[in-house]
């Protein structure tokens, strides 16, 4: 990391970065650890969670535009977390927190059950080589973790510039009994709450089509 990014961890992390109890690995979450959103944000408000927030461009923009909502960025790459904190501080964003941890553990145990109004997964690693596709985040079984974290009627928003992964996402989530489509037709309309990032522009410039999906968490019995 750069000197500025190192400084972000020293000076900004106390406000932005949650101190998550660990299990075995540095990015793991202890199975008994639970987040208390009201304590972390100092209020009760709709919580939007972005999985794989990268450099934080999308979530910092959203948090700045929506001060009445709370935002949580989940990322494992420290340079991206540092960049997110620097940009959030520069923009005066205070309704954002960050977690340096593995996404499945955050969804399946750390977040309170039904605590998220929305979960965003934008341009997660497509692991496009055939021998690596088993590493993709959206695969059979993922729906259980996402459904646990989402409130009844909450939305799971996804976007990718990799066609094969988009088809897999749709196939997996169409088969999940706890979710239903929240769009008509083949693909969802582009989510207007997602700022256009350099990453998305790069995909478009390479001729890749951006595909959005959105699913609604069914009501608990």
Numbering strands along the chain, what is their spatial order in the largest sheet?
3-2-1-4-5-7-6
The share of residues in helices is: 25-40%
Question: pLDDT under 50 segments (min length 5)?
Answer: none
Overall pLDDT metric? 93
CATH classification class: Alpha Beta
- The secondary structure category is alpha/beta
CATH homologous superfamily placement: Vaccinia Virus protein VP39
Order of helices and strands: HHHEHEHEHEHEHEHE
Strand content: 15-25%
What kind of sheet is the major sheet?
7 strands, mixed
Radius of gyration based on Cα positions: 17 Å
> Which topology does CATH recognise?
Rossmann fold
Number of helices: 9
Please describe what this structure looks like.
The protein has 221 residues and is of the alpha/beta class. The chain has one domain: Vaccinia Virus protein VP39 (Rossmann fold, 3-Layer(aba) Sandwich). 35% of the residues lie in helices and 20% in strands. A 7-stranded mixed beta sheet has the order 3-2-1-4-5-7-6, with helices on both faces. α5 (78-91) links the parallel β2 and β3. The protein is globular, with a radius of gyration of 17 Å. The relative contact order is 0.15. The model has no long low-confidence stretch (mean pLDDT 93).
């Amino acid at each position: 990391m750069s000197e500025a990014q190192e400084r972000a961890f020293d000076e900004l992390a106390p406000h932005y970065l949650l101190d998550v109890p660990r299990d075995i690995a540095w990015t793991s979450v202890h199975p008994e650890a639970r987040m208390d959103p009201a304590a972390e944000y100092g209020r009760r408000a709709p919580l939007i969670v972005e999985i794989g927030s990268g450099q934080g461009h999308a979530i910092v923009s959203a948090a700045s535009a929506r001060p009445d909502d709370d935002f949580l960025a989940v990322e494992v790459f420290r340079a991206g977390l540092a960049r997110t904190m620097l940009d959030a501080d520069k923009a005066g964003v205070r309704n954002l927190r960050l977690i340096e941890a593995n996404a499945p553990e955050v969804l399946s145990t750390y977040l309170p059950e039904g605590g998220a109004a929305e979960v965003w997964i934008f341009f997660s690693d497509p692991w496009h080589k055939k021998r690596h596709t088993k590493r993709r985040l959206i695969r059979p079984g993922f729906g259980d973790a996402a459904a646990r974290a989402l409130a009844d009627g909450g939305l799971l928003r996804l976007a990718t510039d990799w066609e094969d992964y988009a088809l897999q996402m749709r196939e997996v989530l169409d088969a999940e009994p706890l979710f239903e489509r929240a769009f008509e037709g083949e693909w969802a309309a582009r989510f207007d709450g997602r700022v256009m990032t350099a990453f998305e522009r790069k995909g478009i410039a390479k001729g890749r089509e951006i595909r959005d999906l959105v699913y609604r968490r069914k009501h608990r019995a």
